[in-house]
Prior knowledge:
Oligomer: single chain
Radius of gyration: 33 Å
Structural class: alpha+beta
Amino acid sequence: MKHPLVARARGFLLMELAIALLVIGGLVALLMPMWSMQGQIETGRLDALRLQQGREALLRQAVLAGGLPAPLKFKEDLYGGASASSHSELDAELATLPLGWPGALPGQLLGVASVSPLQTAYWYDAQPALRSDAGTGFYPLSTQVSGVWSFEPIVSQFDPDKNPKMSTGGNARQLCRNLNSLQALEQNMRVHPDNPDALYSRTHVNLTLPRTWAEGYESRFSWDSALGYAGFTGASDSPQDDAFDNSSAMAFVLLRRQPPALRRLDRQNTVYAQVGLSGLDPALANRGSLAYPAFGVDRGFRIYENPRTVPTDDPSSDANDYGGRVEAVSLGEFAYALQQVGLCTAAADRCKANQLFVRFANYVSSAPPSGSSQGLTMRWQLADPDLASPDDVLLSGDVASGSVSDGVCLDAFSTDIATTALARQLRISFISPAGAEGYTSGDYWYRGGWLVDPQGTNPLPAADAGVTRWRNLSALWAAEAGNTVTISCTGSHTVSAEGTAGQLVAAGVGITLPTCTVTQQP
């Protein structure tokens, strides 16, 4: 009588177990997408955190090292039968890349992760003039034509394909000077349509790379499988104008690129045409010899996605999808960050790479034939020797006897025209007790010459304290240019008569003349 009861009890328990398993299975099916989504959220959070940590580490390194570090070379090997760069592995020797070339984030140096949660190495692109590489500190380019030396224009000075020595060299003052020049270049190109005679056309956009696109411009991009990166359709017939007008110059850009299979989701962050269908970048030797090749040739524009662009996933098309992530610091933000820690705040830090910070000391008095002497006012003038007087004077100032002037940034060569660089002369004269500048013979300056002599011979010519030059070419070198140039004139100057009737006497028996010296020191 008991056996049927036992059988019924077992059947009831199996039914309960089956129902329980169905319920648990349903819950698992419901929770699996949530767990997957939670994993994606955590991966995205970690990705964003690592990028931000990299950004902050780069800013710290710029302060500590006087500039940004060099990008690293990726490991190169045969992938799918073709030589290409790895998307995740770095060169075994951690070789650094030349000025102007983007590469991998030097995480080992910075103390941050080099590889993202998606197992792609973080891509890093730094403005070459803001890098701190030793041995590449800014040194001005000059050339000799028919025996005459002249400076190369500023657009050549800041082109790494023309000037291999254009970085800060690890000098904090040169970091400020280069940053000031870059901001001026960007501004001059920005106003080019209103000032076309200055020739700062958009063809010089390469000098201000890397850049990021303006927010909202991403709708103009679509993946081009033939190129291996996303091309863009501008609003005008000039892609360079569109590229410049709709982007901003950056000190550096840091980004997480997609794995090779998802390369199309990088859009314009894909810098080079892919190797075959591998989704990988070409090996360094196959990228051409120029850091700045012709606009848009065999590469993306190095104008990266705006950091505020949100991921896009169109279920019907991949053409405009985006799954990258970008951190970037503009030139203005970079300057502000440096100033917050006390860099680039001194008066000398306002100078550009083509300028020297100069102050004048005047300890010169009159020497009349009889009677008492009186102090003479010094007048300095920065001049363009190619112009006729009085239009040749570009800038001037007076220094009272017994005083030292405030420092001023003076051009060693011109930058008002993008394609020319005219050397500037610095002239020193004195005001006679009678109130006349210069001499009755018609010569009005006492001492004058190139502020910086463009002659680039080795060895450089001997300095002559303003007889023909005040400083040699090396005065604009990164290791020296941040130092203050002091021009000090001492002694007495013969005048024709005592009191306010006295005129300066340039030559004759028994006359005395001042002595002017020039130093360049911190």
